[in-house]
Amino acid sequence: MGSLVLSTLAVPSLPGRKAVRLAAGALASALLVAGVLAGAGPAAAEVPAPGHGGATATIGGLKTYGAAVIHDKSHDKAGDRSGDKAGDQKVSAGLFEMSVEGGGTLQTYCVDIQNPTQKDAKYHETPWSGTSLGANKDAGRIRWILQNSYPQVNDLAALAKKAGVRGGLTEREAAAGTQVAIWRYSDGADVEAVGARAERLADYLEKHARDLPEPTPSLTLDPPAVSGRAGGRLGPVTVRTNARGATVAPPADAASGVRVVDAKGRPVTSVTSGARLFLDVPAGATAGAAELSVQASTTVPVGRAFASDSRSQTQILAGSSESTVAATTHATWAAGGPIPALSATEDCAKSGLDVKATNKGDRPFTFDLLSTTYTVAPGATRTVTVPLPEDQPYDFTLHGPTGLEQRFTGVLDCRTQANTPPDEPVHTLGGPPQKAVIDTTPAPDLAETGTPDVTPWIGGSAIALVAMGGTILIVLRRRTDPHGS
Questions:
Q1: Do 193 and 180 form a contact (C-beta atoms < 8 A)?
Q2: In this structure, how many other beta carbons lie within 10 angstroms of the beta carbon of residue 435?
Q3: For FRET with 350, which of 131, 183, 249, 383 sits at 20 to 30 Å CA-CA?
Q4: Is the dihedral of CA 56, 59, 63, 66 positive or negative?
């Protein structure tokens, strides 16, 4: 019988939420150590960041921006707004630029004012449910702001007239005013633009914003993982995209005879949205795994969220050039026994990672997770949520039958200061943000609202955990199957 084993962590008996928090913290520490030590072992197949498709990009920093002031919570909104009160922070506010892997450029605003941006951080297109937007009742208003302001509205004279801004708007003022309006909804922040015209635009956008639905992804494959017996078709995998068409890449190991086909068994090299794909595995094929990959060129819909691989502030799309987008479904097959398909999705509503296991084999698939044994019957699907603490890296690998290895990595970034419970304050990795002195020079980068470099913290935490003499390791292994699966 195939099995996944995740070693249990001893947690003292504590009442209520404290026990949950401690268990989650211990798990995250263990995952972090496992990720550091795993570097010495053989490499595992890395699953794309939760989100399962779309654009992947590297942030290049702020490009068009002005200044804004985050007022202290004790600031009297009806009183002095001169921006020189103790505790106020001055930050840059405006458009970031990202370079898309494979070609293309994205413009984004941030939706997490108290987190820093990390230099050259990699971002993935992500559903709102995998970010703080998922629990934000005003997320749709942010999308309205994006669609009705700069850079989607690039006629700045018309925008200024609609907002009642006398004297017009510069690009910097338009970008700053738009970012400030977004922060008021994304973070519940008491923030204002430095400059009367930018502030007037922010007030207009905040007042007139209306709720809009989440935009559709640029490209996804559903489901992100499939499995089945050799000699049959694995799938279907449904393509969803806003592109006119997409290219299907053949499996890397062409000699295996595995082909990408449609429902009638015909080879497929190009598709449109709604197409259903299958992996045709020859009878007698050795147990193994392959990837079904699809790529397209399109503009990414305004309002799509972008989450980072590291602890870098979440972004929301304001504009896109023609950009490369891609999605991958992982496939596994065997002659018999348990044949699992494994995937994971960050779920901010549950503050964790949903690990999904589907068993297409003829024997039960069993795995242990946090002291509990789960069994997935043949033909059944089961989802287990791994609780994770906010803003800490996770990195673990699942090993399954047929030699399957899937690595899940990322950082759960689900909360802003506005939606953090009073007894769970937000902390940056380097400690609470320092109170900034208000000056007249725009900050060079929004990273000044937090600690820009997490590498020393990660390394130091890992070493400290090991030095404590703990054997907190995630052990994920395959049990011997007496049936030879």
A1: yes
A2: 11
A3: 183
A4: positive
For residue 205, how many other CB atoms are within 10 A of its CB?
Answer: 25
Residue 106 identity? L
**2, 480 in Cβ contact below 8 A?**
no
How far is residue 32's CA from residue 108's CA, in Å, rounded to a whole number? 29
List phi, psi (to 5°) of 184.
-65, -30
Contact yes or no for 483/147 (Cβ under 8 A):
no
Bridging pattern class, strands 105-110 and 225-229: unpaired
Q: Give residue for tokens 């896109």.
A: 320
End-to-end CA distance of the chain: 7
Closest CA to 358 of 344, 373, 374, 378: 378
Give CA 355 to chain center in angstroms.
15
Give 74: exposed, middle or buried? Use CB within 10 Å, 0-12, 13-18, 19+.
Answer: exposed
Residue with tokens 């985050």: 70
Residue 45 identity (one-letter amino acid) = A
Work out whether strand 233-241 and strand 276-280 pair parallel, antiparallel, or are unpaired: antiparallel
Give residue-wise pLDDT tens across range 315-371.
999 999 999 999 999 998 999 999 988 888 888 888 888 989 999 999 999 876 666
Torsion angle of the four alpha carbons 156, 161, 163, 164, in this order, in degrees rounded to the nearest 10: 130
Q: What count of other Cβ atoms lies within 10 Å of the Cβ of residue 431? A: 10
Cα–Cα dist 462/459, whole Å: 5
Out of 26-40, 176-190, 255-269, 342-356, least confident range:
26-40
Given strand 352-359, what is the order of strands in its sheet? 340-347, 352-359, 381-387
Vertex 204, ends 175 and 216: CA angle to 5°?
A: 65
Q: At residue 397, does pLDDT exceed 80?
A: no
